[in-house]
Amino acid sequence: MTDALSILKELISTSGLSGYESEVREVIQKAWSPLVNELNLSKLGSLHGFKHGAAIEPRPKILIATHMDAIGLMVTGIEGEFLRISHIGGIDPRILPGQLVKVHAKEVLPGLVIKPPDHLLPESTAGKPVEIGHLFVDTGLTKQEVAELVTVGDLVSFAQEPVEMAGDVLVGHSLDNRASVAALTLCLQELQTLQHQWDVWAVASVQEEVTFAGAYTSGYEIRPDLAVIIDVTFATGPGTSDYNAFPLESGPALGWGPVIHPVLFREFKKIAEELEIPYNKDVLPKLSWTDADALQVTAEGIPSMLISIPLRYMHTPVEMIAFKDITRTGRLLAEFIAKLPLDFPKNLSWD
Amino acid sequence: MPTQHPSSTEIPTIGLEQIQLLEKLSNACGVSGDEGEVRKIVLEQIQDYVDEITIDAMGNVLAVRKSKAQDSLRVMVAAHMDEIGFMLVKDDGNCQFQFEIVGGIDPRQVVGKTVRVGKEHVPGVIGSRPIHLTDSEERKRAVSISDLRIDLGLKNDKNIERGERAAFATKFFQNRGSLFGKALDDRIGVATLIELFKHAPPNIELLAAFTVQEEVGLRGALIAAYSLKPDMAIALDSTPANDMPAWDGKENTRYNSRLGEGPAIYIADRSTISDPRIIDHFVKSANENHIPYQFRQAGGGSTDAGSIHRQRKGIPSLSVSVPGRYAHTTTMLVRLEDWQNTFRLIYSGLSDISPELFKSPR
């Protein structure tokens, strides 16, 4: 339990953009390897951790999905000392000027996203947000050094270091969704002492931010009886106060809507209440824009549940999360798994 | 007692020790009007070398090193200690504060950054609405400062109040020949002036002014120049190097200054027309000593020279800047060689300057 914060800080100090997750996967492998019976990789690079249940075979299987990929940037051109960039995943270009980054070139180079002064940009952008195609990354290297080290297609990840703030708050990049990876790690730690009948497949999925390819393929390969997806949702904060946002430290948000199997929602709600874990009901009128959307429709269909951790300033390098919501999510998940009866799949009726 | 100063016989250069000092100065927070943390470092650095020292009514550090010669020129060298930043102006009561910009910061540089608040450097965040909740129309508008907050998390355990300052949280670092950090405008001038003060050329009376409130209107320098009553003045600052490509591929003719081309000598900016006698003297010194230099393109911007040159009966003044990219953002970038050459130019130019220079009228 005590090292979950340090694992999370390591996870958000590590690169691993969508499609190129190997760096962060190694950190997760190291954290999970003492907690599971077996680790393997999917063809697309998702990490599968298998922990067998206590019941006799054949046992039902639960899949827990947490995506490990992160949003970031990519080099699209080189103009002398300066690098042109594009984005991987959803990034509002208005947050980019002044961000410190790492350019994953022949060696990792520190860099800075810069906005040229208005007089070097189209007149129409004066005083307005500058689109990503007009921004540069400056590594401080000379033209010759850049030509030697940097190639079009090199990845650029955020360099924001983790910041611990008052009230057990953590700030950093990629807390979406490394915070959920940490929650799943905590769950696996709890399962070391909680007996569970079911087989557990812990999945750190790839490419959620772009195509959900990891969720589709790991779901297909593992074919679980049910799936629980952990991701982040909006926390209330400046400019964010609608029905779909929840206060920081108000507990996990339990998904409800067409993507969610209603029995799973009710079961999680019941357990949260028994354990006196605060929670919110996260109403999702349509899709959830998480791996749940993919897992629900994988193969012949997988009953799915989404648990979301409130996060401020999503998809910026200064995402903010309350550590307590991560530990609550991990505990709720572990208790759910431990309480799963072998005949539970039979109860999964929509009516 | 000038003879008791530590030895300064070796030829001074900008090396590891000076870079480490710049790092310390860059990481310190000193938003205009709240320069105490920088002042403390300055005082520690120069205390063993001063003949006279005053901290004046606004907090300028005025330090004198006497000349070893008769009738020497009284030269004021100014570098400002303050930096751009923020002031917390309204407490929303939930560890979030509305804030205003202090100095010139483009609001487009503020979103999604970390800051340090108050004397204890309490971490804070300026976040943004998640992209998922915005539409394309909203993303066409720059975020207004009044819609942003400095967010301290879930607990204000250091009792941060409205009125406190915040500065960008960037930590200084070096990569090969480039130095990155916040507030290099003008901590690089402060570091240069500290080094000059430790190795003051013996032919001049060096009047060092580590000034306050430059970023809010060159205010500290105004009273510093009055008090010091110099014969001439140099403002050491940092000037923008806007030397990146223009969007349409045309030649960038408005670069202001360029990295790697040496100290930027000012001919004119918005607030000062430099004294041509001092320009000529420094250009001559640069040429004789094979020091690269460039002329900063005339145009906007201003330095402490703007206040100094019209103080009392008039003070012949020049500004010399280390070229730097991305001033007034989270992170500035300068080249070590430009800093080294700036120091060489200032040192060599002052080492052979004399009252003769001002015998002929301007």
Describe this structure in words.
The complex is a heterodimer of chains A (351) and B (362). Chain A is an alpha+beta fold and 351 residues long. Helix content of chain A is 25%, strand content 28%. Chain A folds into 2 domains: 242 residues, Zn peptidases (Aminopeptidase); 87 residues, Peptidase M42, domain 2 (Elongation Factor Tu (Ef-tu), domain 3, Beta Barrel), CATH 2.40.30.40. In chain A, the strands form 2 sheets. In chain A, strands 1, 2, 3, 10, 11, 12, 13, 14, 15, 16, 17 and 18 form a 12-stranded mixed sheet that branches. A 6-stranded antiparallel beta barrel of chain A has the order 4-5-8-7-6-9. The model of chain A has no long low-confidence stretch (mean pLDDT 96). With 362 residues, chain B is α+β, with helices and mostly antiparallel strands. Chain B has an 8-stranded mixed sheet, with helices on both faces. In chain B, a hairpin with a 5-residue loop joins strand 1 and strand 2. The model of chain B has no long low-confidence stretch (mean pLDDT 95). Chains A and B meet through strand 7 and strand 10 of A and strand 7 of B.
CATH class category label of the largest domain in chain A: Alpha Beta
Number of strands of chain A: 18
* CATH topology group of the largest domain in chain B: Aminopeptidase
| Poorly predicted segments of chain A | none
CATH architecture of the largest domain in chain A: 3-Layer(aba) Sandwich
Order of strands, main sheet of chain B, comes to 1-2-12-3-13-16-14-15
**Element order, helices and strands of chain B?**
HHEEEEEEEHEEEEHEHEEHEHEEH
The arrangement of helices and strands of chain A along the chain is HHEEEEEEEEHEEEHEHEEEHEHEEH
**Radius of gyration from the alpha-carbon trace of chain B, in angstroms:** 21 Å
CATH topology of the largest domain in chain A: Aminopeptidase
Mean pLDDT of chain B: 95
Number of helices of chain A: 8
Q: What is the number of E strands of chain B? A: 17
How far is the N terminus from the C terminus of chain B? 36 Å
In CATH, what is the homologous superfamily of the largest domain in chain A? Answer: Zn peptidases
